Amino acid sequence: MRLANIRYVEAGAILARPVINSFGMVLLRAGVHLTASYIERLKTMGYDVLFIQDDRLADVEIHGAITDQTRKVAYKSIELISKFIERDPKDSLPVDSIRRAVQQMINDLLSSSDILGNLTEIQGYDDYTFHHSVNTTILSLVLGMASGYSERKLLELGMGVLMHDIGKIKVPEVILNKKTPLTEIEFEEIKKHTTYGFEILRKNNDLSLLSAHVAFQHQEKWDGTGYPRGIKGSAIHEYGRLAAIADVYEALTSERVYRRAIEPNEAYEYIVSQGNKHFDPKILEVFKKNIAVYPSGSGILLSNGQRGNVIKQNPAFPNRPFVRVFYENDETLTAPIDYNLAEYPSIMIIAVENR
Ligand SMILES: [Fe+2]
Q: Distance, CA 216 to ligand 1 centroid (Å)?
C-alpha cells in the first residue's frame, strides 16, 4: 500500500486502511473502491492523505502504531473527561479510564515491531483536539521508551500528555477555532489553557502531580521563551520538555483549521532547526533517532530523477529509508528498483510527493 494525498486519488482506487472518525466510527472500510463522490466527501471533511492499495507495494506493511480499538478507547476516555468537566468542574475526574487507555497504548507500542514507520495516521479536522492528544501521546511514549523509561514513568507521562490540552475547554471556542491570526489579547487567552489544565488535573489525588505538570509545562521552552511562566532548562520537568517536542511535531504534521499540514520531513527539519533554543538537546537527539522522517508508504522524489515510495525504515538512519522506484524523469522504468538509501549516500530524497 501507499500513502496518497487526496488530491491525487482517482475514482476506482481501493482503500488499504479504513477511514475512521474521532469517535472510532468507520466511515469507509478497507477494500472499498473509492468513487468520485466519496473522494469529494472526504475532502470536505478535511481528510488529507489516504492509504491506497498498490500491487507494486504489496509487501509494504503499514499498521497504526496503536490498534484502531485502542485509539477508540483513548478517544472515549478523552470525551468522557471533557463531558465530565463541562457538567461539574468540582467533581473529580474519571482518571481510571485515562489510565486504562494509556496502559493499552503502552502495551500496543511495546508489542509493535515497526513503530517508526507507522506514526502516520489519517485524519480530518472535525476532531482536531482528540487526534492531536492521542497522536502526541503516542509520540511521547515512543520518546519515553527510547529514553529507557520504566512502565510506571511511561504511564505517568502518557496520562499527562493525553490530557495536556484539557484546559482548552475553558478557552472560548471562537478563539480556539479562529482562522485568522490571533490578536494579542486572544493569544493571552490561549496561553491560559496550560494553567487551567494544571488546575483541573492537580486536584486529583489519583493522578500524579507530575502528570498535571505536563499540562502546565508543555509550552515552556528550553531557552525560557515559552509560557506560562517562562522557566528554562532543567527547571522544566523532563516530561514537559519531552511533551513539548511531541506536541510541536504532531501539531505541524496535522491539519489545522488555520493552515494545511506539512510533511513529516519538513516538520523534522523545523524541529531540528529550532534545536537548542526551544528544546532540550538530549531529548532532541532521541527524537532525531526515533522519528520516521519519511514514513513507510510515502511517495518520494530522488535527486537522480527517480520517483517511488518508501518501503521500509532504516532504524539506524531514520532519514535514509529503503525505497522502491518506478519512474525516472516521469518515464516508467522497465522494472522497479529497490534501494537501501543508507548504502547510496549520493542519492538524496529531494521531495515528498504522495501521489
Ligand atoms: Fe497545548
A: 9
How far is the centre of ligand 1, averaged over its atoms, from the C-alpha of 262 (Å)? 19
pLDDT in tens, 193-247: 999 999 999 988 889 999 999 999 999 999 999 999 999 999 999 999 999 999 9
Distance 218 CA to ligand 1 centre (A): 7
* Residue 85 pLDDT > 80: no
Return the residue matching grid coordinates 482506487.
Answer: 13
In order of start, what are the domains of the chain with their CATH numbers? 2-57 (3.90.105.10), 68-290 (1.10.3210.10), 299-352 (no CATH)
The reported pTM is: 0.85
Torsion angle of alpha carbons 115, 117, 122, 126, nearest 10°?
60
Maximum alpha-carbon separation in the chain: 68
Mean pLDDT (the chain) is: 87
Neighbours of 153 (CB within 10 A): 17
241-270 residues labelled b (16+ CB within 10 A) or e (exposed): bbbbbbbbbbebbbbeeeeebebbbebbee
Q: How far apart are CA 33 and CA 37, in angstroms?
A: 11
Q: Measure 134 CA to ligand 1 centroid, in angstroms.
A: 13
- Taking the centre of ligand 1 as the mean of its atom positions, its distance from the CA of residue 318, in whole angstroms, is 27
Question: 299 C-alpha to center of ligand 1: Å?
Answer: 31
For 7, 15, 33, 154, 299, the CA distances from 11, given in Å and listed in that order, are 11, 11, 8, 43, 19
Write the DSSP symbol of residue 15: B
Q: Which three cell numbers stand for residue 257?
A: 483549521
* Residues 125-152: tens digit of each pLDDT: 445 667 788 889 999 999 999 999 999 9
How many angstroms separate the alpha carbon of residue 165 from the centre of ligand 1?
5
Q: How far is the CA of 133 from the centre of ligand 1 (A)?
A: 9
248 CA → ligand 1 middle, Å = 9
Residues contacting 336, CB < 8 A, separation 6+? 56, 308, 324, 325, 326
